[in-house]
Each structure stands twice: as C-alpha cells, then as structure tokens.
Write a structure and sequence with these properties.
This protein has helices spanning 29-35, 54-61, 63-66, 70-89, 99-110, 121-137, 167-177, 196-209, 213-217, 256-280, 322-325, 355-370, 373-377, 385-388, 396-418, 423-433, 436-444, 449-456, 458-461, 465-469, 485-495, 502-506, and strands spanning 5-8, 43-46, 164-165, 227-228, 234-239, 250-255, 290-295, 302-307, 312-316, 328-332, 335-338, 499-500. By secondary structure, it is an alpha+beta fold.
C-alpha cells in the first residue's frame, strides 16, 4: 500500500458533535488541534501506514505555508498528495526525490496515454510551483523541480480559462438556469425555487460590477453601494481588501438596477429565511456570534462588536476575511440576524465557494432544455464544438469576463459616438484619462493593464479598438457611425472564438 491521504482542519462551527469518549483517544480534538498550531483549512497528511506525517505538520505550520491564502493552501495541499503516493510506490520519501523522479511524474501526469486523468499544462505549472515550495523548504538538493526553470514549466500553459457571454445570452442563461423557463420563455410547471431572487440578483451584481466570486459573495448588508454617481445609473461602494486578491481595498461600481434587485432580495426572500431561522432557534445554537454594535466611517472604517460572553472587540472592516464576516450579526426587529448578505435556505451565511454549485445546476438546466437526450449523455469535455455551442455555459468568473468585454465595447461606443471624438481627439483624451483598456483595468482592480489584455480580453486584443464599433466603410471621422451594441456582440461572437451569443445558441439566422 502506497496511498497517502489528506484531511482538512474544519472551521470551528463545522466540527459537528464529537463522541463524549473522544476521538482516537483524544478527549477534546478541536482543542488538541489548536494546541498543535493548526488553523482551519490546514491540511493534515496521513502516510500509507496510517500515521500523521510530522514533516508535513512542520511544513503546514511554517511561515512558508502559513502565509498562503486559504484557497492556495487547499490547492497546494491537494497537489502534494498524488506526488507523495507516486514516490511511495517507488519506495522513496519526498526528501529522496531526484529530478528524474519528477520528470517521470510529470510525464505520467501530463502525457502518459495509460493515465485516464491527465492534466493540462496550466495545472502542471501550479503543481510545479507547489512542489518547488516544498523542496526548497525541505532543503532538497539538487531541486527535483524548479518552476523558475523554463524546462520545468509547461509550454502549453494557458493563462486563464476565459468565458464570455453576451448580455442577451446571460439573459437566456438566467431565464432557463435560474428562473426555470422552458425554451419558449415560460416557467416550467414543475419549477420551484425558493432561492431564485438570491441567485438572479447575485448574478446581476457580478455582471454589472465585475466583482470576483469571493468579493461579491463576501459582502455584508451595510457594504451594498448607496452613493449614486452624479447623472449616472451607477452606484459606487468599497470592496474590502481582505476579499480581493491584491489585499487592497478598492472602489467598485454597480448599476442602480442590479443593486435594486439585491435590495428586493433582502426585503423579501432573505427576510423570509431569516424569520424561519429565528423561529427555529438556529442562530441561538451557533458556536460563534459577534453582535455588531457600531460601524465607524472614515478612511479606515472599523466594526465594533460584542460576543456571547460579553467580550467587546473591534477590527478594521477591510481586514475582516470572509470567515470572520460570517460571525457578524446585526440586531434586527425579531432578534439577531446575519450581517452576511447572501444566505442559504436555512438562513445561514452562504460560503462563497457554494456559488459554484448554483452555477453548475443552472448549466445543467440549460442542457436539459436546449440539448437532446443523446447530446446530454456525452460529458461536456467530449462533446463536439457544435453541440457545446447549443447551450450557454457560465461560471461565477464568467460574469467578470463578460463585464470586462462589455465595458470595453461600451467605452469605445462612448468615445466614438456619444462624445463624437475624432481620431486626434481620442488620442488627446487617452493621454489625459487613459484609453478603454486602462479604464477597464481600473474597474477590474488589476495592477497592470497588460494583465487585463492578456488574461481577460485576449480574443479581441488583436482587433484595433476603432474597428470594433466602426461601420465597414469609414472615410471621414465626422461621418462615423456605430452599430447597435447587440449587433456588435453578435458580430464579435461570429468572428472570435470563446464568446457565446444567443444567435448561435438558438440557431437564428445571421446576416
């Protein structure tokens, strides 16, 4: 037996009910784990002989691993297990691994026809980064793999899996996947969803703001934007740095309509699940609750609270991560209720990664409605491109991608049509305020405009910005005309790979 296993330290509220006699001879397992210096989300590795590996306990508690984001810890922790199993099958420990062992492992993971679960170049590069960190920490020499070496990186790596849907295709996806509509546009008789308002308002918020899943999914009630832009249809708010990848707070913008949908959810569907949870006493049984007593304003807003034991605490709002945010409660008309915006049917905070399941189910509903039974039986990755193109497919990050593409096109439309700028005027405007790429970069919160071009808008990066919206024949700056935005998106979907549009999905005739 050479199989390694990994278990994860749960959050305090997810230990469940433990046996009175203890677990494996340990009376208070959560307390014992905390004394060892392990944190929620940390991996614990179990060797093939059933014993916990001490080396990896030291790695997990080291600064090298401790400072990683929780999602990165989970990714790296998952990546280590198959490598450890591979090396154990050769009768060696990870400290004895050689460059040849890692070359053989890479071949098995990426290229071996005998492996039914081969991985992509992008996945290998992530694993190589995890292994490099492990071997450097363990002072293994020579390094079996080093992600900084060109030969240890995959040449076929793709920077990101980008997915765009045009605005009307998002409408189709939402109607079928989240509202239960049939192809004809009416809700199916058997459709019943008690979370329809929550799901549709979340999607609209992401589409209008470009927020990431964790950024939008970790919002608190009092963080919804309320300040309207002058003469605009947008509101602006502040996203906490702890929720962003850069760990820097930034201003974000959301349309009045999308925020209105969220507010409608808060006042109806959300209020209903809160009342049910209060009546069932669910909040009274939570192991951790911090009742917010004050939220200060200013450059660095702070949240002040008191816990069940009467202990008073406070922290900067921008530094509260999503787990701490789930412990915050507000005093409502019927008692304490979560400050967390998005709630489950049980009235409890919905962890950001659970949105993946909402999108997955919506994708499956679209397939049920738009694909034949035979087409549905084939797994998505094995379907022909023409079959994949019949049903819209979205992830939470697709909203961010689509927002970026939409804003690029809209900004160009404003530059060329609304402002009536000549080419010279546009050059001057770009020098003063930045071109549309730069403005989209700011909206997305990227540090570098090249990141925006490379990872989010690659399919249209080869197009000249002027040609996206200009008519086919343009000889005079003063005579420039602009297509309807739906027509622009339809044309881009026909000419560019990766953009999903309703014409192609529903088989409409194209000009």
């Amino acid at each position: 037996m050479s199989e390694w296993h990994v278990v994860w330290v749960p959050d305090p509220e997810r230990w469940g009910t433990l046996p009175a006699e203890g677990v494996l001879g340990v009376q208070n397992l959560p307390e014992a784990v905390a004394r060892m210096g392990l944190l929620p989300g940390d991996p614990v590795y179990v060797r093939p002989d059933g014993m916990v590996d001490r080396d990896f306990l030291d790695l997990v508690r080291s600064e090298v691993f401790r400072d990683l984001e929780r999602e990165t810890k989970r990714n790296y922790g998952t990546d280590y297990r198959p490598l450890l199993t591979f090396l154990s099958s050769r009768g060696i420990s990870w400290r004895e691994a050689t460059p040849q062992d890692l070359t053989d492992y890479r071949n098995w993971r990426c290229d071996a026809p005998e492996n039914p679960h081969r991985i992509s170049g992008t996945k290998w590069n992530r694993e190589a980064a995890a292994f490099t960190k492990l071997f450097k920490w363990g002072k293994v020499s020579p390094l079996p793999v080093d992600v900084s070496r060109k030969e240890d990186r995959a040449a076929d790596s793709v920077g990101s899996r980008v997915s765009w849907l045009t605005p009307r295709t998002w409408g189709l996806w939402s109607d079928i996947g989240l509202r239960g509509h049939a192809r004809v546009g009416l809700a199916r008789p058997e459709w019943e969803s008690r979370t329809e308002m929550r799901n549709t308002s979340f999607v609209q918020l992401l589409l209008s703001s470009g927020l990431r899943r964790q950024e939008g999914g970790g919002l608190l009630l009092f963080e919804l934007p309320t300040q309207r832009l002058r003469r605009g249809r947008y509101l602006h708010g502040r996203i906490a740095g702890s929720l962003t990848r850069s760990k820097s707070s930034r201003t974000y913008y959301a349309s009045v309509d999308s925020v209105g949908q969220v507010e409608a959810y808060v006042e109806s569907e959300r209020a209903w699940v809160v009342q049910r949870a209060q009546a069932a006493g669910r909040y009274d049984r939570l192991p951790m609750m911090r009742l917010v007593t004050k939220v200060t304003h200013g450059l660095k807003p702070k949240v002040e609270w008191v816990d069940r034991n009467g202990v008073v605490g406070s922290h900067e709002l921008s530094r509260l991560d999503w787990r701490e945010r789930q412990w915050l409660f507000l005093e409502g008309p019927e008692g304490p209720e979560p400050a967390w915006l998005w709630l489950t049917e049980q009235g409890l905070p919905m962890a950001p990664d659970r949105w993946n399941g909402v999108f997955r189910m919506a994708n499956l509903r679209c397939e049920e409605v738009l694909l034949t039974e035979g087409e549905q039986k084939v797994q998505r990755q094995f379907r022909l491109a023409e079959v994949q193109g019949k049903s819209p497919y979205a992830t939470p990050h697709s909203g961010r991608h689509s927002f970026a593409l939409y804003m690029l096109i809209l900004l160009n439309e404003l530059f060329e049509k609304h402002y009536g700028l000549t080419k010279k005027d546009r050059r001057d405007f770009a020098l003063l305020f930045g071109d549309p790429w730069w403005l989209v970069k700011v909206l997305l919160g990227h540090k570098d405009v090249e990141t925006t071009k490379r990872h989010y808008l690659a399919p249209v990066a080869h197009l000249q910005l002027e040609s996206i919206l200009a008519m086919a024949d343009t000889d005079d700056d003063k005579n420039e005309q602009v297509e309807d935005l739906d027509d622009v998106f339809a044309r881009l979907a026909r000419e560019t790979a990766g953009i999903q549009d309703i014409d192609a999905l529903l088989g409409k005739a194209t000009p």
